[in-house]
Amino acid sequence: MRLTPLALAAGLAFVGAGVRAQAPDAPAENGPPSPPQLIPDRKLQPAPGGEAGRRLPIVLRANEIRARPNLDAVAEGDAEFRRGGTVIQSDRLSYDQAEDLAVARGHVRIEREGSVYWGPELQLRVQRFEGFFLEPEFELLQFGSGGRADRIDFLDSSRAQLKNALYTSCPRDGGAEPAWVLEAREVRMDFDANEGVAEGAVLRFLGTPILAGPEISFPLTDERKSGWLPPSIGLDSRSGLELTVPYYWNIAPNRDATIAPWLSTRRGLGVQSQFRYLEPSLGGTLDLDLLPNDRVAGRSRSAWHWQHEGRLGSSATYAADLRRVSDDGWWKDFPDARRSLTPRLLSSAADVEQPLRLGDAEGLAYLRVQRWQVLQDSDQRVFSPYQRSPQTGVRLGGSAAGLDYSAETEFNRFTLPSGEDDGTRLTGDRVHLLASVAHRFGDPGWWLEPRLALNAAGYRTDQRMADGDRSASRSVPTFSLDFGVELERETSGFGRALRQTLEPRLLYVRTPYEKQSDLPNFDSFGKDFNFQSIYSPNVFSGVDRVSDANQLTAGVTSRVVDAGNGKELFRLGVVQRYLFTDQRVTLQADGTPDGQTYDRRFSDVLLLGSTSLLPSWTLDGTVQYSPEISRTVRSVVGARYSPGPFRTISTTYRFARGLSEQVEVGWQWPLWGRVPTAADRGARSGVAAAAGAGSCSGTWYGVGRFNYSMRDSRITDSILGVEYDAGCWIGRFVAERLSTGRSEATTRLMFQLELVGLSRLGSNPLGVLKDNIPGYTLLREDRRDPISSAE
């Protein structure tokens, strides 16, 4: 069983700090020079071994020293012995040079490599690092933790034994029992083998044993080691109480696996597993979840995900990202297993790529295949995209004679996923060519770029198209002229030097009309109307639709920048498009032709603004305003207030006329107790300071986020939780509610106990908090956890 962390390994090892000699003071005018002074220096390294270690000088200092040259020495009264990076202090210390034996008694203290040990008696053969320390206590400065033992026996520089050892990161200088302790009857450590073994180990929290094992093995360094990991416990509204007990298998330096038996009180027994591999020319990960008999669904269920990439020859590469689940309801029943950004659209893709170089042109030749699995178990049906089986093409680009050019030619076979072909959508083949040539004039303060582009495509369909044919082609040229200016001026305000810019831009586009309503549409949709897309020559994404255009887009942006550090403090922008002629190529929201003509001369106006001028505040927003109806069509407005560590609250308002209106609020805020300052957080060498300035009196934090639909008058997704930071341990309780339909939702409860310097026990909500709460800050640095991490 694997339990003890790297921090404990370092603590139970014999490590500490050194000192360095300070140059003697200049001689006094009428007296002898001051004696050399020794001052602490924890950057010294331990003494080297072998002959080099024996040649290191010994420094001995005390109130009284009796010595026989080349034989022995006795130091009494604030005695200090130093050799290399090892420093021993005690009331009395003797050193036998022939035996290389140091014996220290009375308030013994030893420092080495950033850790401190103290106790009543030490005997140590310094060079061989062999001996014992009676009743030592230790402090690991780099981890902010420590402990004690009845005895440490140093067998040599790489092996040690501890009797009745205790480890904790809680304060140990008071009379109260630490909030958590890890106790072991005996600990054996072998640094050469990177292995420690603890016998009779018990983990106690608030005086109650919560984990125990007759024999526990653990790694002594960052290297991986096979063993059981801490269990995870969660509560799910669909699966009930869940218990996961993972086992980590270090198969080889380049291969490992995690196998996690999983028990649900409602569904039964299953297993979650992950296998990872890394070879010189390939590597990947395979995830496999199995539930042989789901008592709720009444069937066997599974999910797998394989990611693989490799190299062919000297430059070609290949990759695969494949995923599959057994049934449509998997995404709702196991929301924590969503391994896709679109949980109801599972993509499987594979590709081979070969970089090309033809003269001054660089490019890429590729062959790809993409498939989709669509999960339709919901009252909201998913519109399935086309599959590409295959997609192969060549891309080239470069510069010659002052011209920038690019070209792409590609063949695609478009099909629909199984069960999604209802006979109303065309399938078939497409060959296309996209090419452009441009020349850029200008200086750093302005530019003018004319560009000529071509979009040509040929089709062969499995069904008849709207005009009755099964093959067709079209070719559409586009001319564009892009002009912009960047003006700057120095100014001042708000007590600082500022730089203000004024950046007007004009884009003229001319594309002739080409009838395309009878042609298939495999991959084109209307682009989102924003500050980037409005400067695009084509209002559609993909290849199949090219918008006719005789239009001018005009916009201006102004920014205010701190002249000292370059930080943007304020931005304001406005842009609008003007049509000289009507746009005749249009699409509905689902990508089908709508047969209408877009005849509005002036497009909607886009306004953008953001600022961080107000202390602790960040404000930003975009507004789409329609002059035709004199009303706002869409808007996104957000504000975040972050006055200090662990204090953030944000709100965002999203509005789309006739579609949705939502308010999102997220926060992390102290509820009670002292919040550590930046100085506190850095005082313990990378481990955040305990709440309450180092004591285990705690601080409560509230965390959460919710989305409220004003159109539906309901909360869609929400997260609500509390964190309790007691300094040496952190408790987290988080509830998450995920909407899986208009009238369906899944609720999860996550509990976690983090013992600082040891491990995290329970289900981990940190990923949920970081992904969903803007500005969320970990209460501790995200140090790698050698217990719960697979590497």
Automatic annotation (TrEMBL):
Region named Disordered: 23-52
Organism domain of life: Bacteria
Cellular compartments annotated: Cell outer membrane
Keyword Signal (UniProt): yes
UniProt KW keywords: Cell outer membrane, Membrane, Signal
Any Pfam family: LptD
Chief site of localization: membrane
Signal peptide span: 1-21
Domain LptD C-terminal span(s) in chain numbering: 300-661
Quaternary data: Component of the lipopolysaccharide transport and assembly complex. Interacts with LptE and LptA.
Function: Together with LptE, is involved in the assembly of lipopolysaccharide (LPS) at the surface of the outer membrane.
Similarity annotation: Belongs to the LptD family.
Protein name, per record: LPS-assembly protein LptD
Species whose genome carries this gene: Rubrivivax benzoatilyticus
